[in-house]
Amino acid sequence: AERNPGQPEFLQAVTEVVDSLWPFIKANPRYAEHGLLDRLVEPERAILFRVSWVDDHGEVRVNRGYRIQHSSAIGPYKGGIRFHPSVNLSILKFLAFEQTFKNALTTLPMGGGKGGSDFDPKGRSPGEVMRFCQAFVTELYRHIGSDTDVPAGDIGVGGREVGYMAGMMKKLSNRADCVFTGKGLSFGGSLIRPEATGYGTVYFAEEMLRHAGRSLENMRVSVSGSGNVAQYAVEKAMALGARVITVSDSSGTVVDPEGFTEEKLAVLMEVKNHLYGRVSDYAERVGVHFEPGRRPWHVPVDVALPCATQNELDGNDALMLVRNGAICVAEGANMPSTADAVRVFEENGVLYAPGKASNAGGVATSGLEMSQNAMRMSWTREEVDARLLEIMRGIHAACIKHGTRDDGRVSYVDGANVAGFVKVADAMLAQGVI
Length: 434
Ligand code: NDP
Hints:
Layout: H1 8-27, H2 36-40, E1 45-54, E2 60-71, E3 77-83, H3 89-105, E4 112-117, H4 126-140, E5 149-152, H5 159-173, H6 193-211, E6 220-224, H7 228-239, E7 243-249, E8 252-255, H8 262-274, H9 279-286, E9 289-292, E10 303-306, H10 315-323, E11 328-330, H11 339-347, E12 351-353, H12 355-358, H13 361-375, H14 381-403, H15 412-430
Parallel strand pairs: 3-4, 3-5, 6-7, 6-10, 10-11, 11-12
Antiparallel strand pairs: 1-2, 2-4, 7-8, 8-9
Helix pairs in contact: 1-3, 1-15, 3-15, 4-5, 6-7, 6-13, 6-14, 7-8, 8-9, 10-11, 13-14, 14-15
The protein binds NADPH dihydro-nicotinamide-adenine-dinucleotide phosphate.
The site of NADPH dihydro-nicotinamide-adenine-dinucleotide phosphate has 26 residues, from helix 7.
């Protein structure tokens, strides 16, 4: 804590991982040597930079840009770019740390990184967003590359923003190799990448339920958020026969006891992705109930999929879910559950998957985009989706292998942390103290 003052999210993520690794390291003392843990909790490099740009009124604006290159032990740094006013060093360091384990779990050769800016895209014109993205890349470009560091999207950064950044990167480097993933289909993007995180989260929930002799069929599901991850989690959960009864944003929650339909989801996507509107606009359009200022966790469901942001589900929310009979929680967002909430889930036998396991489908499919670009090929939708499903099943199997306790219960937290750690740690040990 003394080394990282004022970084609560980073300390939260590190504490969770180290606590869950401790028994494994005690049983396997070679992982306690060579300063391995001390090195693993320190980013290899953290870059902070100024982003100056001119708004529509001719005013000069200054934002702060970041790229945390956490670990390149198993491959080039890889992880998203976030544009949100809450972005700071602590949040990006926690995300880059988590990303390192997540990327290892995918089995693809990708290290961990994360970046972004405190720029708030809400209320900005399309021209302002483009100029900001371009200004951001005029500094970032010197630190990234297809074999060095390959960013992608995250909160506030979707296909449009990735397109602007990849375009500026190409102009500055005079190269067309793959430096960003999540690109548009017309310039190297992969089919299924927009869907991958949400689909993967639901595939993971289905695997957990199957392992426990259940399935998503006819389950009531709450989803939080209404962005990229949330939308495709809704779509896949519906496709597997579940009834999705909530979505949300930072201003409130839509509660729809009858559940989403394909038609309603199309309206949500139109409102969010084309009109850049709010879930309250969606609720008004389709005539469903909107609860201002509330999160979804008081609504009784069988399965909860938090897909918005970190620490959006606390201990009390978790207790409410448990009391209302929830049996499964799979995180689409990164660290949406507080440490208290995780404890409540694990103590009450809820099938609980941490984001680094359940939301790894996004970065896995980004890895597939890198492969397709390097081969100058594109795979079909079915081919990418089949690989995604296989990767999610592989992560589930790794969690079972490393997270099954003596009483037969599975801790997906321990399973994911140990499985991710072993791969990164073995690579670090083999490469010496660097
Ligand atoms: P989007 O920007 O598309 O959507 C974010 C959603 O979360 C919006 O509904 C937003 O509401 C809500 N949200 C954001 N910040 C807050 C906040 N502080 N309080 C309440 N609600 C908030 O982002 P994504 O869907 O891409 O990302 C969602 C989560 O998934 C993040 O944790 C991200 O790190 C994680 N993730 C994303 C991946 C991807 O492939 N995109 C991959 C793996 C993880 P509002 O509009 O009101 O801000």
